[in-house]
Amino acid sequence: MVLKMTHFVIFITLTVSVSCRQSPEKLVGITGNQIPITDSLHGMDSILTYVASYGKHIDEVLDEQLAYAPVKITKEDGSYNSSEGNLMADIVMERANPVFESRTGKKIDFVLINFGGLRSSISKGPVSARTAYEVMPFENHIMVVELSGKSVGKLIDFLVASHTAHPISGLHIVLDKNDRLRSVDIQGKPFDKNRHYFVATSNYLLGGGDHMDFFKEAIQVTDIDYLIRKAMIDYFTKNDTITAAVDDRFIKVK
Amino acid sequence: MDRRKFITNTAATSALIGLGGLSLSSCLGKSKKHLTILHTNDVHSHIDPFPKDHAQYPNLGGIARRASLVEQIRKENPNTLLFDAGDIFQGTPYFNFYGGELEFKLMSMLRYDAATIGNHDFDNGLDGLYAQLPNAKFDFISANYDFTNTLMDGHVKPYRVFTVDGIKIGVFGLGVALEGLVMKKLYRETKYLNPIEVAQTMSHTLKIEEKCDLVVCLSHIGYSYGDDQRPSDLKLAAQTEYIDLIIGGHTHTFLDKPTIAVNRKGQNMLINQVGCYGINLGRIDFYFDVQNSSSAEGVSIVV
């Protein structure tokens, strides 16, 4: 009797597994939705508490006052150069040159970054690391590019044609009243198309950003592993007062 | 008769019959099966909701709210999977300060099942990604990044098969071309393979060899690029078969509703992408029945 029962059980189990194989689940319907994450959902308390412990430290670091800006610094206050553009390009020159010099024994001749990369003005008042994140949210870092005089000529032609106050430092460009190039000085000396120049820029522009194609003609590139934002924070840490003004580095004579 | 032996035998027999009876009834398809797949893409370290005065996304997003929503859906249907289609990293100071630690820890708290690797997930280099792996209690899957000669070797699977309520779900990952998008020194010896060719092999492996009921692709190749020759989710759908769902990313595409696409065999399938920054959660529900039930042929898709 016991033996028979065992057989019966095996028989049923077999039948079940065989019938299952003959009729597997089949997909019959699909529905698709998108659910917006709004304030109608109450944030999970355990997650909020966990995040807050990280956020508190970030806020402390970001909002600690590093310097003071007596007047607003903006990229919108000049046609060919701006207070914020000048500040940024000068910061890159001041912070990057010692690093480049210590690595290569050479000096940066001038700086060119892009107008579009400055994402916020600097308000009058306290300046903090958060200021640097607002102006430069991207992870752009400083690259030093060796360009031939011919390529630098293209760079200058690009600036003359752009009608945009791209941030520059170390360059002095004068246009005549018809927007034609009148003179170019680099580090106080007339531009010499027969020599090479070391130009500090961002990895974004070197990679083809803003169609600054002359950077594709780079003879040599040195990555100095220095974020532009980090250079700003270092500058703000070193200087109590942050000032900048429109000047004559790129002008048009009347 | 030995009384003790009799009781043991009887108990064993009834247990077996009980088991047989149970599988028999489920086999007859009295109860349909229901699988829910939830997904995000391009969250870019957006952990907090956007500020109330934000120009584009006021008061939207936030991972704590997403956690509540996911928990609510899991209560409704425990047979739920949660995926991310890449670019977890980069976008807020949380990433700059902690290198992705918090992102991975929170995704683990939300019980993500898998994620694929986006271009920005290389932003701190292979070392930076590798260093954060211990914080991720979910799998990284990518079938077209070959990490063989890098320190990520062995830490990324081409695909994973999940079994949920007896349903086999095969999930593979795809990443975007790195050259020109990510600096070489960040991805180093990572090799990018043609995503569409890889997907053709993967979908066959999952459907035919692994006998999966569903095939899902976590794609960070981008939804569409107009007339461009670049691979995209729309091209991927048209040039493959067996894939039921592509969960997309990279192009930050907001769709009014999931796209119903046609594969190379003329069968319908779904592509979904939910924009970016964690301001939406994608939800796809799959309903199963037994083959010989009275339900009509084909799959009804309602979006």
From TrEMBL, chain B:
GO CC annotation: outer membrane-bounded periplasmic space
Keywords on record: Hydrolase, Nucleotide-binding
Keyword Plastid on entry: no
InterPro entries hit by this protein: 5'-Nucleotdase_CS, 5_nucleotidase/apyrase, Calcineurin-like_PHP, Metallo-depent_PP-like
Gene3D superfamilies attached to this UniProt entry: 3.60.21.10
Calcineurin-like phosphoesterase domain residues: 35-253
Signal sequence region: none
One of the GO biological process terms: nucleotide catabolic process
CDD domains: MPP_UshA_N_like (cd00845)
Origin superkingdom: Bacteria
Any GO molecular function: metal ion binding
Similarity field: Belongs to the 5'-nucleotidase family.
PANTHER family found in the cross-reference section: 5'-NUCLEOTIDASE, 5'-NUCLEOTIDASE-RELATED
Name of protein: Metallophosphatase
